[in-house]
Amino acid sequence: MSSIDQILARWREEGVALNPGASALQLEALERLMGVPLPPDVQSFYSAANGMHDYQHDARMVSMWSIERAVRERNIQEGEDEWGPYQDIAFADVIFSAWHFRFRVRTEGRMCVIAELTHEELPSLFAVFDAFLKRPGSLGLVGASKPGS
Q1: Would you say 147 and 14 are in contact if contact means Cβ atoms under 8 Å apart?
Q2: Segment 143-149 long-range contacts (CB within 8 Å, at least 24 positions apart)
Q3: Which residues 6+ apart lie within 8 Å of 31 measured at CB?
Q4: Burial zone of 135 (CB within 10 Å; 0-12 exposed, 13-18 middle, 19+ buried)
Q5: Domains of the chain
Q6: Which residues are within 8 A (CB) of 37 and not within 5 positions of it... i.e. 6 or more apart?
Q7: Model confidence, pTM
Q8: Greatest pairwise CA separation for the chain in angstroms
Q9: Environment class of residue 141 by beta-carbon count within 10 Å: exposed (0-12), middle (13-18) or buried (19+)?
Q10: What is the pLDDT of residues 3-58, one digit of tens each?
């Protein structure tokens, strides 16, 4: 079972309201926002569940945005570091927008995910969900370690 399947199962156990999977048009809208082809893990997640209902959150106070919300909010930050320029595009917030998870897109089309609070850079959405499930504190997440606790 992939980390995407595991996180979706966890959210369902918690009673989190998830949107149905994204349509091809919705996935295209996310691709336009990001300016690069969607990596397989991003496409797989949003095809299975187009985020949470707006402003819904899980036990760790994470709100995974729908594609429509990411496009509507356009919470984009630009920067440059030792590897060159990038755009950080928010796709989830924690503790009511105290901080965000962001897709970091490089000019050459490479993409990773940033946990804004800890500045941890993860290579994929799979890695984010894996960390969320196995070592949430490393991402700056707090709260229940198991559904219902």
Answers
A1: yes
A2: 143/59, 143/60, 143/61, 144/59, 144/60, 147/10, 147/13, 147/14, 147/59, 148/13, 148/14
A3: 37, 38
A4: exposed
A5: 3-135 (3.40.1580)
A6: 31, 109
A7: 0.91
A8: 43
A9: buried
A10: 999 999 999 999 999 999 999 999 999 999 999 999 999 999 999 999 999 999 99
Rounded CA-CA distance 96/57 in Å is 9
- How many other CB atoms sit within 10 Å of the CB of residue 23? 13
Which secondary structure element, helix H or strand E, spans residue 100, and what is its range?
strand 99-106
Q: Give residues with Cβ within 8 angstroms of 13, minimum separation 6.
A: 147, 148
**Phi/psi of residue 87, each to 5°?**
-125, 135
In this structure, the number of other CB atoms found within 10 A of the CB of residue 94 comes to: 22
Taking the C-alpha atoms of residue 147 and residue 124, their distance in angstroms, rounded to an integer, is 24
